[in-house]
Amino acid sequence: MGKNSVRGEGTQGRVEHAGELGWDESLYGDDASGGPKSPKDSGSSGPPGGSGAAEGTGTPEDPAAAGRGHRRSGRRKRGKRKYRILRWTAITLAVLILGTATAGYLYYQHLNNSIRKGDRSAGGSDAKKSAPNADGQTPLNILLVGSDSRASDDNVKLGGGKDIRDGDAHADVQMLLHVSADRKNASVVSIPRDTRVDMPQCKDTEKNKTYPATNAIINEALGRGGAGCVLDTWEKLTGIYIDHWMMVDFAGVVAISDAVGGADVCVKQNIDDHSTKLQKGGSGLHLTAGNHTVKGEQALQWLRTRHAFGSDIGRSQAQHMYMNSVIRNLKDQDAFTDTGRLMGIAETAVKALKVSSELNVKKLFDLGMELKDIPMDRINMLTMPRLPDPKDPDAHVVPDSAKADALWAMLRDDKPLDGKSDGKPAAPPSKGPAAAAPDSLAVSVVNGTGTGGRVAAKGRATEVVTALKAKGFKKAETGSSNPASTSEVDYPKAAGEQGKADAGSIATALGLPASAVKAADVKGLTLVVGGDWRTGDSYPKQDPRTSDPLKDAETVNGADKGACMEVYAPYRF
């Protein structure tokens, strides 16, 4: 910085480039270079001829002039004091502004440096991000993962299982948060932890190990490549591009629950989720019937309660109730505009969460601000439609393809799950390429009718091949059997829009819905004749109720303050 000297004060600092900052350089009493102003610059001049006393000094021979000189001298002293005060005010403001900005930047960096991160994908992510709407906005999809890791003393203390401390963690909670492109509605969809799904190949960079593609229970994906593999598995199942993931363990849930002030929950009967002779384990949740605010460890117990709520499906519903209450309470308390409260939550969150590598504090903050503006009655939470797993119907489930596929399609197309319109007309569908001539398309027909414990319908693929040839698809041939609960027409992902158009022409010819057309890991066009089409040349007309994704999905609306959980009889007291 430059220096200037003011009588009685010694050498003082000046703010560099003050003029560029919008401050008046004259406040310093110096010129821009830091030196004293010349008489010319200050607007004063000596007597004519350039000699004699300075103007306003006065002489004994002229008493009136002397008086005027004393008065002017007093004004100059008061003016200098005024300038000194203004100058110090400017310097103080500069220090405060720069200090605050620096502190804010350092705090932001502190938060960013505190976040634990992992790879967004384990190498199996291939879904495409949605195209922007007319306003240039795209939906936001975030995967929320709850880990049962016992890799710390706190997690062992909260969850037990010290003997599995070094084992692979499981993703017992998996939810997709979908925020619409226009940020006017949001949805949360849970997949039960015991759902059997196809998993892609995943690479675990921390273990330097690659896991082959497989068909397994979805909560095992976390141990096959971290949260990135969970994300890849969801994308393979749903076709939805997922922007980020966030993961929390037992200790993190407790910390965040305390930071946000807990949640209001309700049980219809007294509940005691304890270990029994028939069912080991239990969360330890013990509440009397009615409404309660749960925090800390009790909040964790609520979120982990499974047996007392009847099943993993009941647990998902209880988790949705909890999440809705947290958002509702933060809104009611104006926490989103309370800087001190937000800083406290931010400090806790960055220590409790592990997030995908591209996330940072600003994006997390922006997410909170976007949720703040969504009305509670436009937030809906539900559980994926499912059916008993044919391989283990008592313990596992599989997606109910007809309903689940319709649900995933709604999210991919950014349609609100509450059916409400936001007042804007739907964008016209984009025109893609025309389908190739039917006689030029090679189609492999697969008999997938052997599902749900039923034997495959004999000769089914041959029957459909005959039907296709009658409609002009002369290159249709039978392929190997592959059980599938619903029928679909698959096209190679690399074929893009042209493959989609060609597959669509096959679906139209046989009466299959547009939702049956899917991009898949196939070498060519493949028609899978599923368990929903065991007879006939044309796909049977479906009862709309059988494919309604919101029917029996345990939907919980954010504005519903009266939701209350039913307690399974053996866990009442």
Biggest sheet descriptor:
8 strands, mixed
- Backbone structural class: alpha/beta
Helix percentage range: 25-40%
What radius of gyration results from the CA coordinates?
35 Å
In angstroms, what separates the terminal alpha carbons? 75 Å
Query: Please, how many helices?
Result: 12
Mean pLDDT over the residues: 82
**β content, as a range?**
15-25%
Going across the major beta sheet, what is the strand order? 3-16-11-4-5-6-17-25
Secondary structure tally: strands: 25
What is the subunit organization of this protein? single chain
Per the principal axes of the C-alpha atoms, what is the gross shape? globular
Spans where pLDDT lies below 50 across 5 or more residues: 1-60
Key structural traits:
alpha/beta; 8-stranded mixed beta sheet; 12 helices; disordered N terminus
Report on the structure:
This protein has 573 residues and is α/β, with parallel strands linked by helices. 31% of the residues lie in helices and 19% in strands. The protein has 12 helices and 25 strands. It has helices at residues 39-42, 63-114, 153-159, 227-238, 250-260, 296-304, 312-332, 339-352, 361-372, 401-412, 460-470, 496-510, and strands at 3-6, 10-13, 116-118, 140-147, 171-179, 186-190, 196-199, 202-204, 209-211, 214-217, 244-248, 263-267, 271-272, 286-287, 290-294, 353-356, 379-383, 386-388, 397-399, 442-448, 475-478, 488-492, 517-520, 525-530, 556-557. The strands form 8 sheets. An 8-stranded mixed sheet has the order 3-16-11-4-5-6-17-25. A 5-stranded mixed sheet has the order 21-20-24-22-23, with helices on one face. A two-stranded antiparallel sheet has the order 1-2. A hairpin with a 4-residue loop joins strand 8 and strand 9. Mean pLDDT is 82; it is low at 1-60.
